Amino acid sequence: MDPNVTTHEAGTAWQDPGATATDAEDDDEALTALIVTTGSVDELTLGTYTLTYNVTDSGGAGAQSISRIVDVVDTTAPVITLNGSATLSHPVGVAFTDPGAVVNDSFEGSAMVGGVGQVDSDSLGDYVLTYNYSDSSGNAAAQVTRTVSVVDSAAPIITLNGSDPLQHEVGTTFVDPGAVSNDAQDGSKDLTGTGSVEASVLGTYVLTYEDTDSSGNAATPVTREVNVVDTIAPIISFAEGVDVDLTVEAGVAYVDVPPDVSDSFDTSVTLETLGQVDVNQLGSYILTYSASDASGNPADVVLRTVTVVDTTAPIITLNGESEVTTEAGEDYVDADALVEDSFDSEVSVVVEGVVDIGTVGTYTLTFNAVDASGNEAIEVSRTVNVVDTTAPILTLIGDAEVELDFGDSWEDPGVTLEENTTEEIESMLPERCRSLLSTVSTP
């Protein structure tokens, strides 16, 4: 190896070792101090540099110059340092990004380098990334590796179908809407809650949804509160064929036949009736039917109008017989009639017709009545027969036996006649006696 050739590591400070001078006359140390060096070395730039050394002694004689060849070279390998750990756990299903490594070179500085190899983030397993680097001088860094383990460390996530809390109508079949478990590795699946819901009993029930994936990661349990409630109101309705609105006869006791009440759940619902019907007072009355179940659901109110009317006609009953006979000439006093009405107590009988007691014949008296509601009674009549069954009474005026002298004129004083009717008097007397009617008296 040429002693005049020196190798120097690039990037390190250059310190010239210099040269020595010897002379027969001059002091070697003093002369060495007078050596003149020409040339320079750039330790930051690879290359070959020449340094020349010269000196002149005190007698002016110059020494023969010598040279040193300095080769600035890079022989130091880079160093690779990983960003992050040499062993990484990476969640499956999540895209992997290599954190890379940093290369530090004593001469060329630092650089980033990525690993060689692939990581399948959708498949569980261990994957190796290799990091290599060589500088421009061909110095190769020591190889560095990183092991990436794709693991399933994320628990499934449970999401409820439907609402929470969930309201369910009592008495109807309950079907759990379930939940969905989503896992990065296993995908999604449907879940059914554990626990029970008694759909026929009011109350609050809890269903719990749980899941564990194939890697043993347990999801956070999710619960659903199911409230079994009664929100359906009772129904008030009249039976088929039953009239809602009624018309009843005044004065007749009214017994209400109320509607039925039914409820989808509560069997103890009672019907309440508000209002009264006064059968002794004509008019319209409103009966209000209402009901609420044990859960406080009110039924739609149902109304019934009851109209109290008087449609019953009065009844006329004759006092005595419907046909009577009275003696002509005697005062006739009718026995009259009674009237009865189921409601109106002030109905009176109206009598029409006249009996002429002075004339033999048949007379009709009619009896009618109308109550305050305009109901007319069936007309009742009485036949009155005026008859003459009493014989006339003749009474002589004067003595029944009269003595006269022969040849004396005599004028009959006549008779008096008592009879019920003048009609009969005229029909009964002979013509010769009718002139005496002036003497006839009638009661």
Key terms:
443 residues; mainly beta; four-stranded mixed sheet; 30 strands; 36% strand; rod-shaped; disordered C terminus
Please provide a written account of the structure.
- This protein is mainly beta and 443 residues long.
- It contains three helices and 30 strands.
- The strands form ten sheets. The protein has a four-stranded mixed sheet, with no helix packed on it.
- The longest helix is centred in the last third of the chain and has 7 residues, at 422-428.
- The model is unreliable at 431-443 (pLDDT under 50).
Write the layout of secondary structure elements.
Elements: E1 5-9, H1 28-32, E2 36-38, E3 47-54, E4 66-73, E5 79-82, E6 87-91, E7 101-105, E8 109-113, E9 125-131, E10 144-151, E11 157-160, E12 166-169, E13 179-183, E14 187-191, E15 203-209, E16 222-229, E17 235-237, E18 246-249, E19 260-262, E20 272-274, E21 283-290, E22 302-309, E23 315-318, E24 323-327, E25 337-340, E26 350-352, E27 361-368, E28 380-387, E29 393-396, E30 415-418, H2 422-428, H3 431-434
Parallel strand pairs: 1-4, 6-10, 12-16, 18-22, 24-28
Antiparallel strand pairs: 2-3, 3-4, 5-7, 7-8, 9-10, 11-13, 13-14, 15-16, 17-19, 20-21, 21-22, 23-25, 26-27, 27-28, 29-30
